[in-house]
Write a structure and sequence with these properties.
- It is elongated, with a radius of gyration of 18 Å.
- Helices cover about 55% and strands about 10% of the residues.
- Helix 2 (about 30-50) runs antiparallel to helix 3.
- It has helices at about 20-25, 30-50, 55-65, 75-85, 90-100, 115-120, 135-140, 145-155, 170-175, 190-200; strands spanning about 5, 105-110, 130-135, 160-165, 180-185.
- A five-stranded parallel beta sheet has the order 3-2-1-4-5, with helices on both faces.
- The longest helix is centred in the first third of the chain and has 19 residues, at about 30-50.
- The protein is α/β, with parallel strands linked by helices and about 200 residues long.
Length: about 200
């Protein structure tokens, strides 16, 4: 029986914002040039995602890895880009409100930079959720199995009682491995349809 529904945030609850597009804008480089640096940047991004590195150090190491100077007011500009493009999926917000009204426990499990988490808080983006598990506050990130195990432990539910929604297949695999039901988010209407289909099936409604 499904008792809890766990949502990724970016690309599920709100419209996805690609870091690559912000970087291209900040550094005035092409997407092709940025993509060449991705192998060098992966570990730096992971540390920032896990909250293991401060914002100033992140932009310094990120710039060094690309052989670039840190753009003026880089952190400020990155925050403004995220804030300016911040748009909820109203259909998914409606789904979350409906689930809440029917007594389901609702949680967030998401990888986020610290400034992104801060902006979501400013937008009252956690208000509908009982639990918030974000990478930069926990020192873990999806698809680390340990992150999913922590969620189950702290929520005090069994994996079989959980439904997890994410827009990346690689993040669904660990959830499935421990016994959660999952939905791969492609578009809001499909998320709503798939979530209710699983709940009706599992809860014998």
């Amino acid at each position: 029986m499904i008792k809890a529904v766990i949502f990724d945030y970016d690309g599920v609850v709100k419209k996805s914002q690609k870091l690559s597009l912000d970087i291209v804008d900040l550094y005035k480089i092409s997407i092709e040039e940025y993509e060449k640096f991705i192998p060098k940047l992966k570990l730096i991004i992971e540390k920032f995602d896990k909250g293991l590195m401060g914002e100033e150090k992140f932009w310094m190491e990120f710039s060094d890895a690309m052989g670039k100077v840190v753009p003026e007011k880089c952190g400020e500009k990155a925050k403004k880009m995220y804030k300016d493009k911040f748009v909820f999926f109203p259909e998914v917000i409606g789904l979350i409100e409906k689930l809440k009204s029917e007594g389901f426990r609702l949680s967030i499990l998401s990888n986020m930079f610290p400034y992104q988490a801060e902006i979501i808080k400013e937008n009252n983006g956690y208000a509908l959720f009982n639990d918030v598990f974000i990478s930069c506050e926990r020192g873990l990130k999806k698809p680390d199995l340990e992150f999913y195990e922590l969620v189950i432990r702290e929520m005090n539910v069994s994996p079989q009682e959980c439904l997890f929604v994410d827009d990346k297949e690689e993040n669904l695999l660990p959830a499935e491995k421990i016994g959660m039901k999952t939905v791969l988010a492609k578009k809001p209407d499909q998320v709503i349809e798939d979530v209710w289909a699983i709940i009706k099936s599992e809860n014998k409604i």
